Amino acid sequence: MSAKRITIDGNQAAATIAHLCNEVIAIYPITPASPMGELADAWSAVGRKNLWGDTPEVIEMQSEGGAAGAIHGALQGGALSTTFTASQGLLLMLPNMYKIAGELSPTVFHVAARSLAAQALSIFCDHADVMATRGTGFGLIASASVQEAMDLALIAQAATLEGRVPMLHFFDGFRTSHEVSKIEAVDEATVRAMINDEWVDAHHRRALNPEHPLLRGSSQNPDVYFQARETVNPYYSAMPAIVQGAMDRFAALTGRQYQLFDYRGHPEAERIMVVMGSAAQTTEETVEALAAAGEKVGLVIARLYRPLDSSALLAALPATTRALAVLDRTKEPGAGGEPLYKDVLSAVAQGLADGQAAFETMPRVIGGRYGLSSKEFTPGMCKAVFDELAQERPKNDFTIGIHDDISNTSLAWDASYRNPSAGVTGALFYGLGSDGTVSANKNSIKIIGEKTELHAQGYFVYDSKKSGAVTVSHLRFGPEPIRSSYLLDEGDAQFVACHQERLLQRYDMLAKAAPGAVFLLNSSAPPEQVWTSLPRPVQQHIIDKKLSFYTIDAYRIADEVGMGKRINTIMQTCFFSICELLPSSEAIDAIKQAIEKSYGGRGADIIKRNFSAVDAAIDGLHRIAVPEQVDSSIELAPAVAEGAPEFVREVTAEIIAGRGDALPVSCLPVDGSFPTATAAWEKRNLAQEIPVWDEALCIQCGKCPFVCPHAAIRSKLFDPAELQGTPASFKHVAARGKEFPEGWHISYQVAPEDCTGCGLCVDICPAKDKKEPGRRALNMAPQPPLLEQERENWDYFLALPDYDRTTLALSKMK
Amino acid sequence: MSAKRITIDGNQAAATIAHLCNEVIAIYPITPASPMGELADAWSAVGRKNLWGDTPEVIEMQSEGGAAGAIHGALQGGALSTTFTASQGLLLMLPNMYKIAGELSPTVFHVAARSLAAQALSIFCDHADVMATRGTGFGLIASASVQEAMDLALIAQAATLEGRVPMLHFFDGFRTSHEVSKIEAVDEATVRAMINDEWVDAHHRRALNPEHPLLRGSSQNPDVYFQARETVNPYYSAMPAIVQGAMDRFAALTGRQYQLFDYRGHPEAERIMVVMGSAAQTTEETVEALAAAGEKVGLVIARLYRPLDSSALLAALPATTRALAVLDRTKEPGAGGEPLYKDVLSAVAQGLADGQAAFETMPRVIGGRYGLSSKEFTPGMCKAVFDELAQERPKNDFTIGIHDDISNTSLAWDASYRNPSAGVTGALFYGLGSDGTVSANKNSIKIIGEKTELHAQGYFVYDSKKSGAVTVSHLRFGPEPIRSSYLLDEGDAQFVACHQERLLQRYDMLAKAAPGAVFLLNSSAPPEQVWTSLPRPVQQHIIDKKLSFYTIDAYRIADEVGMGKRINTIMQTCFFSICELLPSSEAIDAIKQAIEKSYGGRGADIIKRNFSAVDAAIDGLHRIAVPEQVDSSIELAPAVAEGAPEFVREVTAEIIAGRGDALPVSCLPVDGSFPTATAAWEKRNLAQEIPVWDEALCIQCGKCPFVCPHAAIRSKLFDPAELQGTPASFKHVAARGKEFPEGWHISYQVAPEDCTGCGLCVDICPAKDKKEPGRRALNMAPQPPLLEQERENWDYFLALPDYDRTTLALSKMK
């Protein structure tokens, strides 16, 4: 059993199995499940075959309702069929899911679990969508990691074909769907061995077929519907054993053994947590640490949530169980407890009454919510739950991971608690969306995964502002499989790279550096000036934590070797060069191989330039001697401009600064209502170049304020008599147009810190200079020399009185 | 407090409140909620006003998804808004419901609960649809009767406006939505007193408005979504007390007091049932009877299901509670217990752990399913559950109301058990869909409700075959409010009327007659011949039960007074004349008033004819002296024709005969797959007239077989050499058309027992007789003289070989 190791994300893991085991795949991609549909589509487009040598037909419908209907039809037509979805998409599938289950049609839906839109939309993970399906009659099986997303996808597929109960296979959106991890591949031979073609033939034979017609989809009346609904009981009763059977066969083939409810921890545990999804990984890691320290704690990992096998759940609980905490990654307002909690409590109470439980007195059972919308669930939070279970009257209906100062549901936790993580290296990379940092890191993980014995994990945090906003890559490497399904936090990173100098002032990124860690900065400052260019808190961290400090001017090197602004290869080379996860020469070879693989199709020149970048990177990397004293007076930039209103200062600014996690419940509106015009206070200062107005050329058409997506360029009309204390560089010119009062002026002004430098206003400007081709009434110019001047002009412009057309017309009549 | 009494159904009760309390009503009608939308639409169309003097805007959308979206928008726009729906319609509203609740928008959705389509569709009642919404954050409140549908609609409306948690108000589809009942009207003054305009103003002020803009419907990230989701907790915690407050205010206004969980039964009850919906009425009636007989039994009626107030639930349970049976009107395959059961079990277990319960040891808690798709729930079934609770090890996860010979979930029950029902008269009416029986009965209930002190209830059972199929009206009258939310069963009817002679042979309707009851038959036989025209089992019932037997030839009378085939007024007059619920003259006056009200707009002549029908009915009614001996040899007709296959004989035939309720689980297919072509075995024999083929006129266009909706007219081509033993009246003629073999003949033949007599084939027949206008190649002729002959011809026709065009073409080539 020496399986091939591959480094992929959860979506790819599940989609690989799904594509191999189906004939019709109906999709309507939705975040975070989209890559499953996209991959399946791409694979079928290049003719990739399923287990039976056919290329699955991938159909994109016009909504998830359509996708579910198409699958329902395909299943009735005898095809093996699947889909991938999440969140509201899954809700739209519900009507068909009741039908598919009612007709005992085997299928596996793969779901990257995602929050439902309530007070606000969220693309991140919780189990609200999955829980909304629990009445449908689908089986529900949860994967807790990328490895499991592949393994349980296959186990679910085998079980549904054998047992006819359709399955919903889910894993945590983003945390698992987008986590890149080194796993053991499930090869086609294993899939072949798991799927018995007799089941497939039986499904084909059940198809609606004019040659041997059947009536389905009929209507039933009060006389027989109830009886018909109860006919399926034997199928549901059999299903848990069928799933366990598939798990056992899978174990024989791969060595990875799963149970419907897997127990971990102290054999005589008194305090037990029950968890489903990726949090099981974190809890497992924490339970091992606590149990090793002698604490009698344990964990039950819920894998097969439906059909619920209460006996299996009870059997997983040790006889010593005294208190149980059941964690739900969902909230059902008004339910008085979330689904998994109620299911476990019911099973335990009923099992005790039936004499099925190993213990004799009813354990204390509490339920809590965690991780809504991908809120972090850390070892410290996990330990807090175990600590709560040790209380005489532990809190029920609690929350963990937030500070609830309104309903006091939240448990306090020790944010500094860490599980031992021998040999694990954490690395953090701060880049900008679209600067290549994330792709380079995915490449690095693959290199480490494939070229070393190390296990690797990558998780990528994006700002919702997308292009031009920060991305933070969280990487871990270590000798054992990595189960830390949470971000690197304060002091966790042995390596911190800042790929964008300007982010240094916005994020306190070195707070996450471990003592003695490495800090790599892409800086345009010459090595001898880098230190003094740092903000004061950055210098302080470097000195206090005794960081090794490296710099490189990656943009200069990229420019010199003809790579434009593509710095990813350069920064990647520096990472490998400093970290020595591989011998330096091997690492460089691996990077160059990756370059050949990625850019082979684009010609020898591109490859050559990248190779040059690698070589130049090693030469351009400088270690900076760290002074003993902080000497900078540069402070971190405030998240919002001065004078912002209270809500913006206290809430919006914290969110912008990346400290939203710390906001207590009381800071958030109860019904999703936020004040408007708050974006004005966030000075993103993204533009490298800003448009400059040429008042002589301008024909005053008004198109530039009209098209600006950020309202960063505006015009104003005014009586020049009102101009007082006008900045020297403030431009204005007589207004054209009979509708304006005579003698009035007009000004077009750019907000230099709001402008993103997209150049749209310049592109559409129709006022061209006849003498100088290419010159218009708006032209891009470098921001740095202009910034202070234009900021002053903008403030002056904003303060000028604002006339609407009615006012103007009235003033004209006077 | 002398409220006006009205006789209406549950849909009208709820819709009345909804129309009075809303500004925008977005609908997409679905059975059994359609009448709510239709009434609201009709009321707004005639300008009926809401509480604030405005006519609500009723908008029909293109699906329930659209209706929910429209309401979401209307609520955000500040309008009071509602909808009415059920089943899959409710599922399509789920995405918007999560949003509406997340944004704390007050609204009440009124739902006539209906099964979800699984192995088959059903338009009848269970709570699967409602339970699918329990994660949305909507409050859920259940009405158990028509009275409650009006009362709790208002209580829900007041509570949502005060507490901002949106409410789903539901009642049992058909059983409550379509039950006609005499109730105390909730008048506008009560509605006015319940709704505080400050709450309405607050809702209006929360509207999105460009004059004071707000941002809603945004996206939230992992940093703050969880906190924002927890902000609503205080609203959900407050809601139960707000609902109870509304219930208390309502009690002060009307005298009708509700509790979140209402207790009924023995004050020291040991065995308790927890029930929600109309079954609570039946259970209440049964608990009173059992408790009066000294049995320590009780009932908790769940009204406010969400937000679940566990304390209120616990407070409703007596300290003597030893065993609880929680009944769910839904099935969640694989859940190991249905929702209400798990909620009650969790609340009890948690309450005991928290020291909140009045009892000290954990009661035994079992859960069961009942009433799926309007399956009957009777006092006998109710008693069976209490009997089960008395067992040492009562069965959990049971079913009641069916015989489950597959999984053995079902409890046995005593079908003969009856609650005392002092003074209640049960009356049964067998009619045909569209013959006016149901409308007449609705009128009769109104007359009794309005003209007497009696309480009245009407429930109408339709065959899904609609027009031409049987309708059975179940009426009850009595001095106390009627809580029997189940059908009249064997021996329950003091009055049985058969409005259609031919039904006598198809249904054993007198099995339901009580000893000494009245049997009224509409018969074309003269009084002296009626007895001998009866089937043998009918005579037997009349003699054994000493029934009073009346007949009338209603079709003859209707014809004579110029009413065509409208017999409803005549039969209604006979009912009042025999039953003497009112003094005869008063009853006749009331019927005539109802006629004037119904037909006033159609002219004096129509009214005069109806009046004549009333008078003639009294004259035409004959009491038949009952002989002492059965002398008929006519047997009940078999439900299906001879030679039917096993499934048709054992399953289809039982369903057709009205005995489907007795079919055990093993008779039904597991996945909704039925054999096809079973309808051929059901000889409905509906047609009074059938089409007769004129082979001389026929142009052989083939349109008649093409348009026949029942495939009851067909054509066949054959070589006349194949004709052997041909019936004398069998018609055939040389086939026209070059594509047919030379010398072949064609025949068009009608299946006289399958034909419904709709006349469509005649209407489209293009072959007209030039000499005799109106005569075509197909003409309707009375069935009775033709039946035997055409049956023989049809059998002969069917047995002739069937050639398809390929065979014909081949034979021609030879």
* Multimerization state: homodimer
Biggest β-sheet: strands ordered side by side in the sheet of chain A: 1-8-18-19-17-20-21-22-23
Low-confidence stretches of chain A: none
Helix content of chain A: 25-40%
**Shape annotation of chain A:** globular
Largest interface: A-B, 122 and 122 residues
Task: Kindly name the structural category of chain A.
Answer: alpha/beta
Number of helices of chain A: 26
CA radius of gyration of chain A is 30 Å
Task: Report how far apart the termini of chain A are.
Answer: 93 Å
What is the number of strand segments of chain A?
28
- pLDDT averaged residue by residue of chain A: 94
Strand residues, percent of chain A:
15-25%
The main pleated sheet of chain A reads as: 9 strands, mixed
